[in-house]
Amino acid sequence: MSEPIRNKKPDITTAPTPQNTPANNAPISSHAQQPGIASIKEEDLDRATAASIFAQNPKLVSMIQGKLGSLVGRSSGYVESLPAPVRRRVAGLQGVQQEHSKLEAKFQEEVLELEKKYFAKFTPLYEKRAKIVNGTTEPSEEEVKAGEQDGEEASEDGESGKPGSTDKDESAESFKGIPEFWLSAMKNQVSLAELITQNDEQALKHLTDIRMEYLEQPGFRLIFEFADNEFFSNRTIIKTYYYQEESGYGGDFIYDHATGDKIAWKSDKDLTVKIESKKQRNKNTKQTRVVRKTVPTESFFNFFDPPKAPVGEDEDVAEDVEERLELDYQLGEDIKEKLIPRAIDWFTGKALQFEEVDEELEEGDFEDEDDEEDDDVSEDRDDEDESDEEVSRPSSSP
Amino acid sequence: MSEPIRNKKPDITTAPTPQNTPANNAPISSHAQQPGIASIKEEDLDRATAASIFAQNPKLVSMIQGKLGSLVGRSSGYVESLPAPVRRRVAGLQGVQQEHSKLEAKFQEEVLELEKKYFAKFTPLYEKRAKIVNGTTEPSEEEVKAGEQDGEEASEDGESGKPGSTDKDESAESFKGIPEFWLSAMKNQVSLAELITQNDEQALKHLTDIRMEYLEQPGFRLIFEFADNEFFSNRTIIKTYYYQEESGYGGDFIYDHATGDKIAWKSDKDLTVKIESKKQRNKNTKQTRVVRKTVPTESFFNFFDPPKAPVGEDEDVAEDVEERLELDYQLGEDIKEKLIPRAIDWFTGKALQFEEVDEELEEGDFEDEDDEEDDDVSEDRDDEDESDEEVSRPSSSP
């Protein structure tokens, strides 16, 4: 039996070899010596989220490239220090690798075609699902029987009631479809559940379908369909993810940007803002007054107002936006690859079996942002802030 | 612009809805409310390692299933609490999902066929690479020219010498191929570099090729080819990864187990063991003596003696072995998907540009295991341990 692998750092007191004698101590070689095993487990677990039905997906390469381009990939001097005939062979291998890269790009294109072919096969099943969910059709006996067997296999304890039994003597007519199907499914998918406020639930329970479509160009759109509701007049709200036309390293598609539909909020129903009011006292008159202002607030519906890639030079801002871009992209992926393909398993919770459970939740990654910045108001008015309280959300109706 | 998403926990003081009234506080619903955004960034970055040329790969689902099966996926009671006609529709959707699963499995099979088709296209390029690396052929002028352009685009600083120039006036005949090509490439791939000891390098510099082959059954083998060397008589050492015959959730192939070739070490050249000696004093006679024993030690060549899946009930042991199984699987993946397809980019360091840089290296994940357990020896002999020192590795030759 082999010994557990240690996290060793090689020391550099041995005889010179091509490996330990770079021309300078450049980032490449020092990076190569960094301990990195710790990260593997994470990746393993991520790979294990067995939901990657459309697995050939665009990567955040461009983002990462931007981050790392200045750190690694520069010459260590090692290649340049090689004798000329060896350098010529290295260049030759780089030329051979270009042929490989062209093939890789073709491979990725063929995988995408395969995905589209299967997406066309999946679509009738999604349409049937939508009809059952919304009560316009009932499942066939065969489908129910197959599903019941599936459920019995899954539940090992005998407690759960047998689906389909009529122990509460309710008739099919009194319940239309599966109420709040999509909201329930979304709330079982952790990355989405995080975003859904209690107010959001009042709107999201009107979801009638979540669909996906490939674009003509590289990319896809997520289509959220809603029944008539008191929050907005849109019947569909669409989020579109665009990939770059040119494929990246390894032939992967590269995520470019996303856009979202504008939501036509009904009066005082915008879930993405809240009204804050604060008392102000005039320094001269000592009179107080209440100032109200509309400030952005957390809501799932911010998903349709995706962050824009940073343009400026401020590194802190750029980092923050990049994090949000990554999250935004990941949410789209989760919906496309997990929620839509297997919504019923998210509804019942079965899909959770196959999800990574991150035991080391790093809550520190997210800062508490309850301290709203109201400086602009007080500056404008030359008033003193006296108190700062949130009065109400505009849309706290049931 | 939307507000950064907070890591909120919903409170449960609102009106009852299907979402907030599970029949009991079962793991499903509590899991769904766990903060999970922190894990997304990791996954994003992993996805961004743009090296997944064979991206439809077996997952560690079986392992994860084993871990989580007892935690999640059990009924929360919510589905069972639904009215009978709704339960019937849920069962029907589960039946529809089974059709979807069958299609997903077919999709994965077709992706594997596509991978094999492209692997056949890549193979001549790999063979040409091996010939250039080992000096049996020289690259063509076109390949060198293409590679030089590639190199010029990559290096933004003008310092690096132009490959192919003969500023050192060396002739092609005096250097055979690219010395230590594979060792250098491996040492730039962090997960592999971690495993390579300085003694290992003396053996690994004799690598002439690393190849991959698909098995007849689901799985693949990694073939390490060596020139004649002083460490072992094998000319090839093979590591084989087997997948399960049956596909898992989402149609993914599931990793089953791995096997490795036995290495025919030459006398006193086994890099996977070291000799420890310790002085012992007999309690009665007070005489001391030196006991030598061979103990396993860290080495890349332990890769060919993969861990076995745990059979017993001891949870601590099982967890440790699972971690090592995950690492072992990940190493195979890294070699198959990153090192072999783009070895020249690992050699030059270009591939590092597209790697995740894990800024939060969790060294704590790995324990220092320098305290060898020698209890068995002292017990057997009823002797007292006096000192415990490592005398020498058997293979410290240059």
Automatic annotation (TrEMBL), chains A, B:
Tell me which Gene Ontology terms the entry assigns under biological process: nucleosome assembly
Instruction: Return the Low complexity bias intervals.
Output: 13-27
The record's InterPro entries line, in alphabetical order, gives: NAP-like_sf (IPR037231), NAP_family (IPR002164)
Annotated Acidic residues bias = 149-158, 355-389
Chain positions covered by the region annotation Disordered: 1-35, 133-173, 355-398
Instruction: Show the Gene3D superfamilies listed in the entry.
Output: 1.20.5.1500, Nucleosome assembly protein (3.30.1120.90)
Regarding protein family, the annotation reads:
Belongs to the nucleosome assembly protein (NAP) family.
According to UniProt, the name of this protein is: Nucleosome assembly protein
Natural source organism? Heterodermia speciosa
